[in-house]
Amino acid sequence: MWVFGHLGIGSKLAAPFSRRLPYGWVLVGTLLPDLIDKPLYYAAAAITGRRGAEIGLISCTRTFGHTALFLFALAYVAFLRKSKVFAALTIGVATHLVLDGFQDYWIIRVLHESVDGVSSLRLAALWPVFSDHFGNFPYASAAEHLRDSFRSITGVGEAVGAAILGWDYWKNGKRFMPPRWLRRRARI
Ligand SMILES: [Zn+2]
Predict the structure, then answer these.
(1) pLDDT class for 74, splitting at 50, 70, 90?
(2) Rounded-to-integer distance, Cα 141 and Cα 131, Å
(3) Rounded CA gap, 101 and 1, in Å?
(4) In angstroms, what is the span from residue 102 Cα to ligand 1's centroid?
(5) Taking ligand 1, which is a single-atom ion, which protein residues have CB atoms under 5 Å away?
(6) CB 41 within 8 A of CB 60
(7) Which of 99, 127, 170, 182 is deepest in the core (most CB within 10 A)?
(8) How many angstroms separate the alpha carbon of residue 48 from the centre of ligand 1?
(9) Ligand 1 centroid from CA 187, angstroms
(10) pLDDT value of position 170
(11) How far is the centre of ligand 1, averaged over its atoms, from the C-alpha of 62 (Å)?
């Protein structure tokens, strides 16, 4: 999934656990692993001129931001600082890892009988327990990755997520207000 799948489906998964938390930060959390790892990989690919495992540890778009270690670090900060923002981010990130795992194991692997898509749980979420490296998806650019994704189940996830977001906006548009600090800064 890219954007709408994580935002729409992720925010629904998060809803029972995040009623008293800032909704905007839950949404940021649903995308945060990709906001960290995708630019990291494409920057590394652009700088080195290499792809996938040739680059080294940053071998795909699911690396540090997709680990349980990152999730626990966020949860730890939320707990230590009693921070609702970090709690919201933690729940959002948890949905991201669940959805990536669901996509890999139950959709790509079961429906398409492919083992290529097993990066999210074993190689990323549980890193470095089972391996000292991440997955190897040698995309040269975000555009190539995007083209490939939309030939697969990712497109369905994006459509479902966009429909959920549209439905939520129609029913309860106020929740889509930007966070208060941003409104103050922009005077809106
Ligand atoms: Zn992801």
Answers:
(1) very high
(2) 25
(3) 11
(4) 11
(5) 33-34, 100
(6) yes
(7) 127
(8) 23
(9) 33
(10) 82
(11) 6
Provide CB contacts within 8 A for 40, sequence distance 6+.
58, 63, 64, 65
The range of the structural domain enclosing residue 80 comes to 4-186
pLDDT tens-digit readout, 98-152 = 998 888 776 666 666 555 545 677 778 888 888 888 887 777 778 877 776 666 6
| Cβ within 8 Å of residue 66, ≥6 positions away | 33, 37, 96, 97, 100, 120, 124, 125
pLDDT, averaged across the chain = 84
How many angstroms separate the alpha carbon of residue 39 from the centre of ligand 1? Answer: 12
Q: How far is the CA of 90 from the centre of ligand 1 (A)?
A: 14
Distance between Cα 182 and ligand 1 center (Å): 26
Q: Using the mean position of ligand 1's atoms as its centre, give its distance from the Cα of residue 97 in Å.
A: 7
Rounded distance, CA 43 to CA 35, Å?
12
Least confident range from 23-27, 60-64, 91-95, 147-151: namely 147-151
